[in-house]
Each structure stands twice: as structure tokens, then as C-alpha cells.
Task: structure prediction
Amino acid sequence: MAGESASGPERPQSEFIIRFRRNRNAMIGSIIVALVVAAALLAPWIVPYDVEKVNMLTVWEPPGEDFWFGADALGRDVFSRVIVGARVSLLVAVSVLAITLTVGTILGMCAAYFGGWVDTVIMRTVDIIFAFPELIFAILIAAMLGPGKLTVIIALSIVWWPGIARLTRSLVLSLKSELFVEAAIASGTPVHRIMRRHFLPNIIAPLIVRASIGVGFIIMAEATLSFLGIGVQEPEPTWGGMIRDGLSQLRTDPHLALYASLALGITMVGFNLLGDGLRDILDPRVRDR
Amino acid sequence: MVGYAMRRILGLVAVWFIAVLLTFIAVQFVPGDPILALLSDRSGDPVLEARLRAEYGLDRALWVQFLDYLGNIANGTFGLSFRFAGTPVIDVIAGGLTISPVLALVSIAIAVPLGVSLGVFVAIRQNTWADTLVILILVAGISVPNFAMAAFLVYLFSIKLGLVPVAGWGGADQLILPVTILVIPPTAYIARLTRTYMLEVLQQDYIRTARAKGVRERLVIYRHALRNTLVPLLTTIGIIFGGLLSGTFVVETIFNIPGLGRMAIESIFARDYPVTMSIVLLFTVFYSLINLIIDLLYAALDPRIRLDAGES
Result:
């Protein structure tokens, strides 16, 4: 797709890899993210125990040879639940990204391309959602729909697409006056073709940066909603839910809260480092300094 | 400037109206009949049911209910609670009314000067070990969610070292951990932005000119560079404030602080939707007011903003 771009010379891919290798943040971040993704994908094969199986004989078992991270209030293996927790977090993040990138990019391009009332309707909707603090809007939706994984995905998608739409709109607005776009319009190229072949390849880099930074936000938001009890529900393991259960037991059995917090913290650092690194590499304004 | 302010205030009123409308619709959508829940064990009593329905105005047309809702917001009662029969929402939330906003304001009052000083500190030491170390800590401070941070801090400082109370509200020592946890993420965020902006500003020609004509380094940093860093920083205060308001939900839940955030969450579980929605509404109003003040300040400081806004 990028090869079809009419925007002049594309940055060769090897240059991206060289820059990536030289960027310490991007390297450390990508290693952490790779480990988390691997754990999430391989979870069914690497977890030693069934994450939902209750065992009253091992309630609050401290960390040891049988249970590396100990066991929780229902005797379930914390290590297994932390690993599967990565799967739940990433599943939510990938779903929200897929929805918001699709909706946000299409609406952003439409707003910029058509202008007029289309632009007004889309951008005023964006403004309204921006007028609420993100998490509080998500809580409002969670209260309406009732807790659950689907609610989290819907709530976070609603609060996150406006950012993508606004970014896309501003990028496309500046592209619209480029000669190659004017030529395409003048020669009667259909709208969807202009969007796919002229806009999309030229806005993909900033969108990737935005998405990579967004993954961190989405994982944090999912964990927060689950921590508050209005996100993903038991018995499915989530880091947020495990930290909430563990906090009440911090004095006698700190392992649950601490290991779940560690997993969430390291994952967040990984995604943020990768996002920062990608921004430095792909954003020419920062890069050329 | 006056025109710009008027436009922004009109926009604010529109946002408030939509927030009111959204919370009203949200209450219509929630599952279950609140009156049947209120009746619970006396659900066979049709007279009582009819009386309660009339008291809550739920027997009237939807648009009348909406007007009622507007009226209740205007007279400051925010309607009646579903959990505490016949009690106005304002009486339920009165105790927490000041706690969450004060927590957020205190946190930002600490985070801004702390973050800016830290940012300047590392910016003028770019690429030294101190810079690298502080950046690592800042990345962790921004990345680690506040409740995960709370797990470590409570375990270390309350349980292992016994320095501060585990939870509670009222004493000054009970404020230390919650405020620390609220302050860390915005401080780290502000410090990183300050560093980036400072490094950008320090490359400008007027800084070179100032140095060339022999202005002392302290003055170059604080008078020439920092001042130009503060203006773009101002715009991010709104985002930071939103994060802090959300943070109070978490921190109040962890530390058993009887603020609005914890009440909102509790009332979701108690299906007391009028209370939840009133709190959502109050937070939105508070948040949008802060953003309005920041926008007006920004427009006053930077004339280009109000010109741009006038054109679009």
C-alpha cells in the first residue's frame, strides 16, 4: 500500500530499522512488549494451573516451589492468573484500537474532505466527548451498560476515537492542498480511492505513533475500571481486579497485590517507552532536531 | 478578547446542557426498576408503590421528568436518591462535596512547581547520568497506574515501616500517602514536558543572543527560557486536571476517603443512579470550568490564540 503512495519518496525501511536500533527507549520498550505479547499468546501452554479452578486447600498460599507467585483468596495460582491477565488486557487493547482506528480515521477523513455540515457534526461530537474527563465518561457508560468486558471495550472506544478523528482531520486538511491530491480530485478520482491511496499512506506514521501511545492508556484504563469493580468481572483474571483483591490482604498476604502491580507496571513502562521511541523515530519534527 | 470569552462561555453552557441530557438518558437506560428495588420486601403493596412513583415523579411523561430533572439541578437538590428513600441527592453527597476537588487542587498546587523544577533541573543537565536516572524515574511515574503504585507504597511505608496510616480520613498523617500517590503522575508528566520544552527553547536564537551579550546563565534559564516554557505548559494543565479528578476515584477507594469519587462508585453498585449521575455532572462542570479558566489565561497570554479562534 505504501508503495502506491503518490507523495514523493518514501523513507526506506532500512533507515527506520537503523533509527529503531539506535533508540534506547524503543529497544527496551519493544523487548518488554514482546515478552508481554508472547506471554499473552502462549498463555494456554505456559500456565501451570487452571486459572479459574478453586482450591480451598491452597487459600493464600505464600509464594514457593508449587506456586511461584503464591495463591489467592480462592486458592488459585497467582502466576497463572498474572499471565492470563496479560491476555485479557491485550485483548481489550487490541479490540479498542481496531474499533477506534477504523472509526476515527474514517470520520476524521470525512470531516476534513467534505467540510461543511459533515465537518461540523463530527467535530462537535468530538468536542462534546472531549469535554468530559476520559475516565469519568467511561464510568458513566459502565454504569449504564453494567460491568463486563464488552462494556469496557465500548466505553473506552467511545472515549478514544475522538482523538484519532481530530488527528486524522488535521493531517488530511494539510494534505488536501497538496498538488497530488488536487490533481487526483481534478481528474475525477472517486472519494474512497483518494482516501485509500492518497490520504491513508501519508497519515499512517503519525497514526501508528498515536496508537502505540494509546495502548498504554487503554491498558491503564481497563485496569482502572476493573480495579474499581466496573470492568472485566470474576472469574476472569485481570490485573486491576487482582490488585483490588490483593490490597485488602496487603498486611498478611502481600504477594497478590505486589505481583499483579509489578506485571501491570512493567507492561505500562514497556508500552510507554515503545510509544515514546516510535514518536522520536517517526515524528520528523522531533527527529530532525 | 471579550468576544472570545463570550464564545467560550456559550460553548460551556452547551456542554453542560449536553452533560445534563446524557446523564438523564443514562438513568433511563440502566437496568431494573428503581421503585421495585426500593420496595424490596414490601413489593406487594400497590398503594406504597404508587405513592413512591408519584414522589419520584416517575409516573409522569418523560419530557416532564426531564424538566423536573433540570429544576432539581437548578434548585441544588439534584433530585431524590434511589438508595435512601425520599432523601435529596445533595444530602447524600454533601459530606464529600469538597473532598475530591480539594484533593485535586492541592495535588496540582504541589505537582506544578515540583514538576517544573525537576524538568528544569534535568534540562540543564542534558545527557548526564542525573538526566538519565531522573528520566527513568519519570517514565515509571507516568506509566505505573496509581493503584499499582499504592500497593507498593502502602506495603513499604505503612506495613513494613509503619510510618503512615494504611487508610482513613481526618488526620494530617492520613493525607500523606493519598496526596503523594495523586501527585506523582502529574509531577512526572509536567517534568518531562518541561524538559522537552526547555531543550527546544534553549536552542532558540534569542537564547544565543542573551548568552552572547553576557547575560548570566541563571537569568538566561529562568527569565528567558523558563518563561517561554510556561505558556505551552499551561495548556496541558487541563488534561492533568482531568487525570487528577479520575485519580480521586481510585485513591478515595483505596484509602477509604469519603469523597465524591468513592461515593460515585459505591452508588453504581447500590444502583443509586441519581447519585452517580449527579457526581458525574459535578465533575464535568468542575472540569470544564478549570479548562475555561486555562483557555482564557492562555488567550490573555498569547494573542495568536484568540485570533485563530476568531477565524474558524
The mean pLDDT of chain B is 85. Residues 137 and 188 of chain B are 8 Å apart (CA to CA). Residues 217-254 of chain B form the longest helix (38 residues).
